[in-house]
Amino acid sequence: MKKFQMNIFLTVGVVMLFLVSSIGSEVAGFIQTARQDSAIKKNNSTNNEVMVSCIAGGIPTKKQISFESCQCLQQLFSALIEANAHNPCGENTRVQKVRFIEMLADLGLIAHDISVEEICSLIEPPWSHDVLSRRWGHLMPPRSLDDENNATLLFCSMAGTGWGFVIPPFLLPRPRLLMQWRGFYPDSSAVSVAEMATGRGVIARGTQVGTAFGFIGVGFAFAFPGAPAQFGFLGYSLLTKLQGADMTWYYANFPPLVMEMSPEDGAVEVPVSLSELQFTLKDYDWDKMTYNVVTSPDIGAGADSNVGNGAYSIPVSGLESGTTYIWTVTVSDGTDTVENSFTFTTEAVAPVVLSPIPANGEKNVPMDITQLQFTLKDPQSDAMDYTVETSPNIGSVHVTGVHDGTYTVPINGMTYGATYRWYLNVTDGVHWTRKIFSFETGYPSQFDPFEFGWQYRKQITVDHTKVASDLTDFPVFISISDSDLQTKAQTDGDDILFMDGIGIPQQLNHEIEQYDGTTGELFAWVNIPNISSTVDTTFYMYYGNSECSSQQHVEDTWNSNFKAVWHLQGNPTQTIQDSTRYENDGTAYGSMSSSDLVYGKIGKCLEFDGVNDYISVPDSSSLKPTDLTLIAWYNPAEETPLPGYFVAKQCHDYWGNSAGQTYSFGINGNNLIHGGFEANTYEQVDSVGSYPVINNIWSHLTLTFNKATQEGICYVNGVLNDVKNPCDSSVLWYSDPWDFTMGGSRFGTGSSHVINRFYNCGLDEIRLLNTPLSEGWISTEFNNQNNPSSFLSIGPEVPGP
Q: Could you tell me where in the chain the CATH 2.60.40.1220 domains are found?
């Protein structure tokens, strides 16, 4: 223990750091306040380095660090002072403190036998903010803003630095009955003191005097000959009195809290007889609140306004066995709105129905399927009876005495384009489960379109020499202007259909990105199950059926590896659609309008003005893959874009308190396009690739990451550009629920989600996959999209019999 105390003593001077530069025999110091930076004098004789002086064992010691590191330390402590005054108990304030200590350690300014954790423990509060708020917050009345020069605060978090003195001069890590400081010069000191119980804070700048009773923390004061004394401290006090010429007050609003939920969050085996949900609302400012409660699946809801701290409930009914329910409480105090979601699962007492086939709500179910299928399971393994009925009637059964297993119901007589419902009732003799499923029929699983009303077809041939390797589930891009489509297809292209052969073939899934019935211009994606690199692949386009509904299967065109596909072909004043089943739809911001929808590389695309235009897609689990491929077509319209990211999954960078990227395409400081990964919480950023910015030229960018090999690869226009192996970490860092952005991003210091970098460019066909695509796939994709007419050819029209 004695050794530890001695080590702490040797490092307290480092914790509250002062930086000085040696110029001849003189010593000059600096601090940074929120109002004005003092001049920093560089040591020209030491290659632009700065001498750091601190107290170690009561003796001033020195260490040279870079001028840039010196500036960074200034900025970190200045940010800490501001954060402490605004929100002393907030996560940002805690992170600022830890970051400051960690940077000292990284610069070698903390003894090697003392850990960062030990130092940080000295500046943690010796009391609970929650307890303080409960017991004292409502007894501490708001302070008038007229009290501009004096402050008396209880249960304080404190941080300060300046020119003057502190008594006692060395603050060891133990409680002090009394600690005083005085700042002598205008614009030379900055001290923040804030009440942890109420969130009220004040920053005193320049000349000031303060007294802290019951202080615990770290700090020191020292002076060199010919230089003013300097002081610094970081800690907590029971009571602080402060007087200053320049004081700025901050009043934090405590958001409402939702507490004491019943059932508890995550509760299981909740009785199906539950009749109400209970919760307690708490606002430490004693503000009146408005709340709203919804449930999913819906078992009840409730709302009220102008309520105070207390317990509340809403009635619920109709709970089903073995079901997980989500209930969401949204509460506002007029300033802050808080939304909390809780879950509970009811007891499993009734039979469970699993895996219905066709799935509920499924469309385009082949009209020639012969059975319905489902799985039954009873929690107590009791024997069950079940009944299935259909509407319109295509089959029914009643079966008794079955056990856990999978069962089928024969059906027949379905027609195309009809909606069918099937009703399943099952009981174990005591408890019942009732389910209703529906589906919509399409054409048979195999059929000849000519026999179902189509009149024309054309053969499409893929040139195997443009296919770099054999591929599966490959979305082929078709770009044609066809006068036959103009005169014979439906005006909206609903009857355009793709088949894998003639006679009685399989239908291929496709998505129409854009179709103009007045010109026959078609941009479409067709999923080809197998495409060969050694022989040409053929498939067929049918059209000319005025009676059929849309034949698109948009989501099925993109297999489950595609987590987002943004064609960017729609009006930006509307939703930016994702074509995959994951529904990662976005919203355009800034001054984007319909005029920003222009012809791009693949059909229509969006142009961004570089002033305030960008697209934001809300965070989701599907946007956080462990392996990935990121793809984008990029066309810059400025010669020297600012460093930053024009396509990125954003994150909050822990070390630099700047907004960074988890994966991205961006511009580096050398005006080169690159891909990037942020690998963990210490900003180990890997840049992959290097490609010049060329105005008004489209480039196909692809970035892949393989967790198993820790390999990041960048491709440009289908060609390998750069490989980094290993990357700094095997796991991508998804630190915060930040958005996926296009055309603009958050870059630089500050933890706000506000976008501050914008790019004057065109973007098209942006995709995210949860697998690193092969070089063969990427090369083939570029060949197809860059020049569709050379990738495939369209044969002559063949009429039906």
A: 257-346, 353-442
